[in-house]
Design a protein that fits this description.
Helices cover 60% and strands 0% of the residues. The chain is an all-alpha fold and 169 residues long. α2 packs antiparallel against α3 and α2 packs across α5. The protein is built from five helices and no strands. 18% of the residues are buried.
């Protein structure tokens, strides 16, 4: 099988499907399935919220007069910059799974387009078997569970937002 995007036709090619991507999830090389992408995004989001809560508690946000706004802004900027890196890497890996180049991730800087890209990455089925960015990466059991939790979080967030908007109006 010379073209990795072509479906296997004989026994030797079927054995090539046994190759799996075992790369580090924090490396831009490799692929993420839909549920893996959502799972790592879920873990990443939880970590971000917990870290932000701990930092805010450490600065005494409950008493605004005691907060040094310059220091808090500097820490917030560093925090957001550090959080952007894994998010970009996860997006690149997901783009690779749908056989698109990773540089498409630059589209996240365009507000409305970024929502479309996120939906595309969350919904589009990845390539079966190997593609031009490497072998298939199977979804691990914990990733499957966390991915479904992220889907539930998204659904409940949208429903909660709609209910909130209806009660405020």
């Amino acid at each position: 099988m010379t073209d990795p995007r072509q479906m296997p036709t004989d026994t030797e090619d079927l054995q090539a499907l046994d190759e799996i991507d075992k790369s580090n999830p924090f490396s831009a090389k490799g692929r993420f399935t839909r549920l893996s992408y959502l799972a790592w995004t879920f873990v990443f989001t939880l970590t971000a919220f917990l870290t932000a809560f701990i930092v805010a508690a450490g600065f005494g946000v409950d008493n605004p007069e005691s907060v040094d706004s310059t220091a808090m802004n500097a820490i917030a900027f560093i925090f957001m910059a550090a959080l952007a890196i894994p998010g970009i890497i996860f997006g690149i890996r997901r783009l690779h799974d749908v056989d698109n180049p990773g540089y498409w991730i630059i589209l996240i800087i365009i507000p409305v387009v970024s929502l479309g890209l996120w939906l595309y990455l969350s919904i589009k089925k990845g390539s079966v078997g190997g593609n031009s960015f490497g072998p298939h990466r199977p979804t691990l059991n914990w990733e499957r569970t966390a991915g479904y939790l992220m889907i539930a979080l998204i659904v409940f967030s949208i429903a909660g937002g709609i209910i909130f908007m209806l009660t405020v109006a």
